[in-house]
Amino acid sequence: MMAAQATVLIIDDEKKLNSLLARIIGLEGFRVLQAYTGKEGLKMLQNEEVVHVILSDVKLPDVNGVDLVKQIKEKKPYAEVINLTAYGTIPDGVLAIKNGAYDYITKGDDNDKIIPLLYKAVEKALLQKKIYDQQNKTIPKHNFNTIIGSSRQIREAIDLARKVAATDTTVLLLGETGTGKEVFAQAIHYESPRKLQHFVALNCSGFNSELLESELFGYKTGAFTGAVKDKKGLLEEADAGTIFLDEVGEMSLELQAKLLRVLETRSFIKVGDTRTTTVNVRIIAATNRNLEQEAQEGRFRLDLFYRLSVFSISLPALTHRKPDIELLAAHYLNEFALKINKNPFKMEKSFLDLLTKHSWKGNIRELKNIMERVVILADDSLIGPELLPSEFHAGTTETTNPMDMQSVEKQHIRKVLSYTGGNKTETARLLGIGLTTLYRKLEEYQIPT
User: Fold this and answer.
1) Across the strands, what pairs with 363?
2) Which of 149, 135, 187, 440 is nearest to 313 (CA)?
3) What is the pLDDT of residues 347-356, one digit of tens each?
4) For residue 430, what are the contacts with CB-CB under 8 A and spacing of at least 6?
5) Which of 12, 92, 174, 344 has the CA that lies 20 to 30 A from 370?
6) DSSP, residue by residue, 72-100
7) What value does the mean pLDDT take over residues 158-179?
């Protein structure tokens, strides 16, 4: 089955040998392409959507096959190259492997090795192609063009992020919770030279100090009770790529010292290990705290702050980018409508007015949750203010009769509860309230469950 999935390109100016190889490989079930010069081979690679393995002669009329490996890898990074030569030399073989060739074999003497070697190369190329496809599908979702907003504040932040993305500089993202710091971190990574490598995110506030150390640095077998086998830390998982440390201000002073060592030496010691592990990783950190003030008060290392803040970008709160509220609301309305097979929505002016006046303490994250709930509750294509929670109506004429607002809230809860199939936890999440608050309101409004 593997053979049927794979395409092999033979580049050799010896036409008889080229045809013989094509026949042998074709009988194995592979799709075979043939070229007789390096230029012709590169053109085929350009025109063919997928080529998994290239068998290339070293002595081609227009190019050295060993040098050709680099050009092949530029066009098809996932493909594997096997160099064929009539007179093998050790320096050529070493250079071929260094350039990225899978193997380097001598014609005639190694004919019996070609098919087994080809199968191994194809197996590796197929795996690399899957990874390549996944990475390249991810990239468009996380570039700067997907960040929504036209306000001056967000455009300035994007411009700064674009400039630093092309470098390897450490970045510190500042801003309130929900302002999109991880979205910016992903865009910086996926528009950087590291874009084909791993992007790993870690929320430092989600673990106690000991667990955070294990997650970040990894550990050796027997380092503590339950450490039954070696574990890679996220720094090692992100090697050659980027690690995003969200809420870095929550990290203990002891771990801050270890993170500082990583920034200074690109090395660390795993929990329970005695040897140093070296990594090549870019660090993007984020916080909603004033780290300089935290450092002055002894809760954050000043030397680490200076290391992290080589290039700082402040992300504006949603209330400081009011022109973007309509754009974001429309985006999320359409996104959630698509998810649950509803037609696109339009927003009434009164609905937009309430969105603009809202304080948005939870920023974009809060807006996204509100729009998800609105889509669930909406029966018509025109979205009106009655679909917004009660806190949006505070101080408006619609709230002069408190019983009216209670009726609206009761209707909201019933609809969301029905949508979730009675799942209280999911209902509370969509309503933006605690589970205890939901149970209190169910009892208060005598809503059957």
Assistant:
1) none
2) 187
3) 999 999 999 9
4) 369, 372, 373, 376, 416, 419, 420
5) 174
6) HHHH-TT-EEEEEESS--HHHHHHHHHTT
7) 96
The pLDDT tens digits of the residues spanning 16-49 come to: 989 988 998 888 888 899 999 999 999 999 888 8
Residue closest to 192 by CA, chosen among 163, 224, 218, 166: 166
56 touches 71 (CB < 8 A):
no
Orientation of helix 402-419 relative to helix 363-377, angle to 10°: 80
Q: Alpha-carbon distance 65 to 357, whole Å?
A: 66
φ, ψ of residue 426 to 5 degrees: the values are: -70, -35
Nearest to 389 by CA among 360, 419, 363: 360
pLDDT of residue 438: 87
The token pair that represents 120 in the structure block:
């191994």
Count other C-beta atoms under 10 Å from residue 330's C-beta: 18
- DSSP, residue by residue, 364-379: HHHHHHHHHHHHHH--
Distance between CA atoms of residues 111 and 118, nearest Å: 11
Domains and CATH numbers, the chain: 2-138 (3.40.50.2300), 143-316 (3.40.50.300), 319-444 (1.10.8.60)
Distance CA 133, CA 10 (A): 24
DSSP structure class, residue 204: G
Does position 399 have pLDDT exceeding 50, yes or no?
no
Type of residue at 437: T
Helices (H), 300-362: 302-308, 323-339, 349-357
Residue with tokens 């070296």: 278
CA distance 283 to 169: 8
Q: pTM for the full model?
A: 0.61
